[in-house]
Amino acid sequence: MPVGVDDDGRLPMPWLAEPLGQALRLTTAHALLLHAGLPNGQFELAMALSQAWLCETDAAPCGRCKACRQVRQRTHPDHRVVVPDALRVAFDWLSEDDPLLRSGAKPSRELRVEQVRAAIEWSQRSAGARGVRALVLHPGDALNHAAANALLKTLEEPPGGLRIVLTSHDPERLLPTLRSRVQRVRVPLPQREVALAWLRQQGVEEGAAMLAMAGGSAVEALAMAGEGIDAQRLAAIPAQLARGDGAALAGLALPRVVDLLLKLAHDAMAVAAAGPPRFYGARHLSRPIGIEPLQRWRDELLRAARHDEHPWNAALLVDALVTNGARCWSVPQGATVGRAGHSLHSSG
Ligand SMILES: [Zn+2]
């Protein structure tokens, strides 16, 4: 996926145009925080914004001037992007002689203090021809305590010409001292029709169920599609789970399994209270035996969510979560629950 605007000045996601305009009007702010409650293109917006700051034309970000292209290719001398090592791996940004490859260490998910210090040192060198430097820190939520503290002074008194953009899913969890030094720009979720059209462009045809499961985030829905999840598979989960069958969850990473089951627990509680489900279609859900077993199951899922990198055998943990979840329905074997979906995986 392209980051920033392309040769024709188009954003990778149409719903970023409004918050980009808002951010560009904050001409005196030297540090901005782009935030949304869910993954919503914050990074792509940060790249487009930093493109605009460095763009050589009046139509910033134009996408086609030398600076815009260099930002897109990450070769602009006055542009710097700092992301956790785990993201550098995911983005395929490692050079052949990258120290991370040599060390063999597990890539960090945090923005480390060494990374922030190196970026600050870079920012203190004199700016290029236009007198502007742009620093992107993504995601700001990944700043560990030491790294956030190292950044404070620079946010307070940035070197001349430096502009900083941070992204976040959860600004309330950032250090208050950091939060108070940045101007916030919210990135609103796309309208449903806009999200569905964008998902179709990305090759996701039956996007409605995916979008509902993703809480309205098209970016998250696309991530799910990339993990092999589709509408049919989602539809199969509730009835299978009620039978103690986890086939529709097979092959998914543990955090995703926990996420899907937490949403099922949420919906089952809504159904038990005669309310509408939010994530799974109502026709796929049957009434659980009661609220109490659901609360116990949800607590178990929340514990698993907090320890999603534990060393236990993930498959065994998923089996236990499925078995305990089935107790919330406690359906005798062979009985039919709601509308049974189709499993994509015959192995159980
Ligand atoms: Zn340009």
Quick recap of the structure?
The chain is α/β, with parallel strands linked by helices and 348 residues long. It has 2 domains: 14-186, P-loop containing nucleotide triphosphate hydrolases (Rossmann fold); 227-326.
What's the layout of helices and strands?
Layout (H helix, E strand, L loop, with lengths): L16 H9 L5 E5 L6 H13 L11 H8 L5 E4 L2 H6 L8 H5 L9 H12 L8 E5 L7 H12 L5 E7 L7 H4 L3 E4 L5 H10 L5 H7 L4 H9 L4 H12 L11 H19 L18 H16 L7 H13 L22
Helix pairs in contact: 1-2, 2-3, 6-7, 9-11, 10-11, 13-14, 13-15, 14-15
Bound molecules: zinc ion (ZN).
Write a structural description.
By secondary structure, the protein is of the alpha/beta class. The protein has two domains: 14-186, P-loop containing nucleotide triphosphate hydrolases (Rossmann fold, 3-Layer(aba) Sandwich); 227-326. The chain contains 15 helices and five strands. It has helices spanning 17-25, 42-54, 66-73, 85-90, 99-103, 113-124, 145-156, 176-179, 192-201, 207-213, 218-226, 231-242, 254-272, 291-306, 314-326, and strands at residues 31-35, 79-82, 133-137, 162-168, 183-186. It has a five-stranded parallel beta sheet, sandwiched between helices. The radius of gyration is 23 Å and the shape is elongated. Residues 337-348 have low confidence and may be disordered. Bound molecules: zinc ion (ZN). Zinc ion binds at residues 55-57, 60-62, 65, 67-68.
Properties at a glance:
single chain, 348 residues, alpha/beta, Rossmann fold, 2 domains, five-stranded parallel beta sheet, 15 helices, 5 strands, 7% strand, elongated, disordered C terminus, binds zinc ion
